[in-house]
Design a protein that fits this description.
By secondary structure, the chain is mainly alpha-helical. Helix content is about 65%, strand content about 5%. Strands 1-3-2 form a three-stranded antiparallel beta sheet. The radius of gyration is 19 Å and the shape is globular. The protein starts with a helix and ends in a 32-residue tail after the last helix.
């Protein structure tokens, strides 16, 4: 029956997405390390599902640049280099700069932050930023990643080109995949992580794109300094941050706090 077929397709598609989300969280959480190999069969047995949605989920993650497919050996977690990370930052800058330009000169020039729909969206973005800041200041990187990804995705949805929102999100996920493997080497991340999310929202609400650009530039400089410092064997603290007031999820389970089921 057509109805039964449709329900089956939706169920498989949902399972495919749940598996992809769970595996992406494993990579972002550092539990699947760069270069680590696994097969469709291993993942299917781990989650107790059939091979088909697992294979589809792994293909999806390969298309997003998180996995590499090997015809004979299965899949492995993609290994990014520092040069890759610099390229991600450059690409992110191009997208974000277009967002700023649209806000002052383009199709968003007439956007009113006090319009009820826009104000409600910005309030949600700001709450996400506040949670990201709390996690950053506490050094809780797993929670920070989830809220940070949601923050940037929702910010781009308000101020950016909707056709570029998914592209920016993908770049940010890839960036975190690279950065988190270095951050996990430190026992205490308090005071080391960027935490100016709400400052960025406030600047954009004022249409102060010069301040917004300076905040984003500072963020990128901080990220590169931190990673390069860690690679060189130092603490890699980067620019000091101003003082401010203060088991894996299987498919179908509720996401952990901050999980991006947002990066």
């Amino acid at each position: 029956m057509p109805g039964s077929s449709g329900t089956g397709a939706v169920t498989r598609s949902t399972l495919r997405q749940q598996i992809a989300d769970a595996l992406r969280d494993e990579v972002l959480g550092g539990r699947l390390q760069p270069g680590q190999e696994f097969t469709v069969k291993e993942i299917a047995e781990q989650y107790g599902v059939s091979a088909t949605p697992v294979r589809e989920a792994l293909v999806d993650l390969s298309a997003q640049g998180l996995l590499d497919a090997d015809q004979h050996r299965g899949f492995r977690v993609h290994e990014y280099s520092c040069d890759d990370f610099r390229g991600m930052i450059e690409a992110r800058n191009l997208v974000v700069d277009g967002m700023f330009q649209a806000l002052t000169e383009g199709h968003l020039a007439q956007l009113r932050p006090d319009e009820p729909r826009v104000a409600a969206a910005l309030a949600g973005v700001r709450r996400r930023g506040e949670e990201a800041q709390r996690a950053a200041l506490a050094g809780e990187v797993t929670v920070l990643i989830g809220y940070d990804l949601r923050f940037w995705r929702e910010l781009a949805a308000v101020f950016g080109n909707p056709y570029l929102t998914d592209f920016l999100h993908r770049l940010r996920v890839q960036g975190w995949v690279y950065v988190v493997q270095h951050l996990r080497r430190l026992p205490d991340l308090r005071g080391l992580l960027w935490a100016e999310h709400t400052d960025l929202v406030d600047a954009l609400m004022r249409r102060d794109t010069d301040s917004a650009r300076a905040i984003v530039d500072g963020y990128n400089t901080h990220a590169l300094s931190l990673v390069e410092g860690l690679m060189a064997g130092g603490m890699g603290k980067g620019p000091a941050q101003p003082a401010r007031p203060a088991q894996r999820s299987a498919p179908g389970e509720s996401p952990r706090p901050g999980a991006d089921t947002l990066p």
